[in-house]
Design brief:
269 residues; 14 helices; elongated; disordered N terminus
Length: 269
Amino acid sequence: MRTVPPRSPAERTQTARRDGPGGYNDLEPDLRQLARMASDDPDRGSLRDRLICEFLPLVRNISRRYRTAAHSAEDLEQAAILGLIKALDRYDPDAATGGPLGYLVPSVRGAVLRYLRDHSWALRVPRDLKELGVSINRATVVLSQRLGRAPRPSELAEELDADTSEVVEALGALESYRAVSLDVPGPDGELTLGERLGDDDPGLESATMRDELRSRIDALPLRDRRILLLRFFGDWTQSDIAAEIGVSQMHVSRLLSQIIARLREELGD
């Protein structure tokens, strides 16, 4: 069984002061050994855990650079650590250049940036629009300096070699990056956004029914339509209606019941 050799006093001293681009070069042999080990090697887990602990100060330093008010330091550090673990598992000594940091730093930084990309938007936005939005922000800075004004969508599209429609869509998506509170007052003490929003209109639910009812009433016989309109729209009493059309109040009551029952049946169908 192959065992991982303990670190020498000199190596432990170097571990305590990992400054500069070559501060982690002493770990390169361990990285190479980890890359050669089979996944079921019983010594691989302990070496892997030790390397993770060795690189934790680097990971924390990178994650702190991207700390924002919208994201906790713990979440960013966790994303960076996951990036480190994946980078260690994929480490290829033949492809890595610039020492351990030349490979691990971009990997950890990329993991943090992906986390920010996926968790910084107030609304769910497709990934391609998020990535185009990042490119638009960068191109806007460059073009603004070059043109002396804010660039047009067509100019952004030309700079990014993209369709103008895609740029316009991404610009619209960028408005979802931050949610606006409904309680924030407008400029100059205007009403808040919540106060300017309309309320639910209960009449909308019955709009279709009213149109249908109107057509059914129009199809009624003239006398039935007149009785219905006088009673419910003119607010006449049954006695007044009876005197108007020359029938008894009881007859008006029966007619109203028949008319309403007919309308209900037709509307129900």
